[in-house]
Design goal:
heterodimer; A: 281 residues; mainly alpha; MetI-like fold; two-stranded antiparallel sheet; 12 helices; B: 302 residues; disordered N terminus; disordered C terminus
Amino acid sequence: MNRKLKRSLLCWLVLSPLVVAVLFPFAVMFFTSFKPASEVFVYPARWLPVHWRWQNYVDMWEAANFGVALRNSIEVSVLSTLLALAVSLPAAYALARFPFRGRGLYRQFLLVTQMLSPILLVVGLFRLAAMIPFGDGNLVDTKLSVIVSYAAFNIAFAVWMLSSYFQTVPRDLEESAWLEGCSRTGAVFRVFLPLAVPAMVVTAIFTFISAWNEFAVVYTLIRSPENKTLTVQVTDMVAGKYTVEWQLVMAATLAATLPVSVVFAWLQRYLVKGLALGAVK
Amino acid sequence: MRPTPRAVAAPRAPWLLIVPSLVLALFIISYPIFNIVYQSLHDVSRFGQIRGFSGWQNFYNVLDDPMFMSVLKNTIVWTICVVVGTVAISVPVALVLNQDFYGRGIARTIVMLPWSVSLTMTAVVWRWAFNDDYGMVNVTLQRLGVIAGPIHWLATPQYAFPVEIAVGILVSIPFTTTILLGGLSSVPGDIYEAARIDGANAWQQFRRLTLPLLRPFINMAVLLNVIYVFNSFPIIWVMTQGGPDESTHILVTWLYELGFRLGRPGEAAAVSLVMLVILFAFSLVYLKLQSLRGGQAEGDAA
């Protein structure tokens, strides 16, 4: 018991610089977001606000057009996640269950798509969106273009995670369902999918977070304020401004970040498992 | 892994299952690649109009640009520093997090936390934290007596880039640690027992047992991190936009500037292709080296 206590102290001591560095920006966000403007730009500056100003969050909501950006972020992230899952599920099932020719080739293709990050293709992606007619104009400045791009760039990750989990679902369960006269497809829907739900939920949440946090694609494809997502909206509050109202910016970043961080903190253990399984197989 | 009779009976089934993902990925990736090649070989106006075939002219312009060499150098420095720094920190962090100690769950969560925050938001917060007069970094360092007066972190070329590299390392640690933790969890505990009985000390256990077992995971982490870091855009774009004096541009930020700020899309497309070639060359060489070394290791074992 005493040994474990000693070991715990040592472990925390080793980790402490990293812990400080990780929590530092959260502290900056939190304390700045409650300072009145007069306390933000005061020299020498101090960590804690003298007067806690909750009103900042109300002001930020107006200044950042936060409600609209929040709705756009949710819409884009949810729809792109659903699309990515819809195409990745069957592919992951095939990878986990069938030894077929071209399997290695398909895996290499996925690795290559990982390499082609959106930012490398952003010039061409913009032309692609400009070329496809949609409504009165084209796909530039539409959420649809962002949704489809996100879904496509998330396929590799989703297939990787899902198939590594699917391999852990025992094959016998499906096989015994066949023996009882269930068709292969029927076994998938009645036996396999219910067991795969946790893996799907975890993958979906991570896909959602990566869409929620993406920047380069929305920054390029979306022009009008009513279509902007949170990441771009917050950057707009900072970029190219002569005076930045940092207390409002920090309120916006904290409000945009905290919900996702909480969900992530709760789920991160599943990520360790999934990525590890995928990395070696 | 014996194929079941039904799987053999329907050899097309796996392909049918794969097709939707293949089509979507190819649709989003193939046209942009084609378009980038096309633009890079043409004279393109700032509004994207193609004005005629120009051969290698865009590539010549890019390579002749006085910016190119410094940007390339920055990109290499950025990628190597961030990836090496990340792995050097993540290995001990993963080893610690793999120990059994009080508060391990909380420690893991804290270490993973930067992953959940958008790089853009992280960069915005750090930009404020490194503010000259009002930022908390200078405030804290002055309070602690480390520095006498405020340092102009992001306005000074020799500080701005290292600061961005440090932020880059911080945000890359969670992903890398995750992969390494996965690797450690697959290491059976009883081999350490055996090593202890044979009288191996902690360092020998690490050198002879843990490191070789972790190697495939470290390789994986290096490869993926090189790809991500080489392509990383938001940190530099938000914190300094390539400044001060264009001293912190890397290829991606310069590519963006060329394409969407300076109105030279043809040259931006050329930079994209140069980057793609670099990435592919690196990945091929790296994977080749790994398989060579892997083969050797197996040979040694046998």
